[in-house]
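Quick one, T. Sequence first:
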Amino acid sequence: MSETKGYCVILTTCASGADAERMARLLLETRLVACVQVTGITSFYRWDGAVNKDDEQLMLIKAPSLSFDAIEKVIVENHSYKVPEIICIPIGSGSDAYLKWIDGVTVK
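Structure tokens:
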């Protein structure tokens, strides 16, 4: 296992599976990301003064940290939400083989 600050997991949510798949494919086609996992969740949140509950698709995006700004731009420009969740979590440690794979399939 390697300690590193060069990689991250970016979280965002989409309203539907189709939206999440479109976003995942766009991010992968740009080679900014190595992997996107999508899973269904239920979100509770406050918006416009009201508490809301919605089924959403959570995207777990694995990428080099240096690509965050470009990834954020792609998400903002192609997202259906007015204010999409975009949270970057640094990967503190990871398998050498996995991190090398991220390097091999992305462009920085």
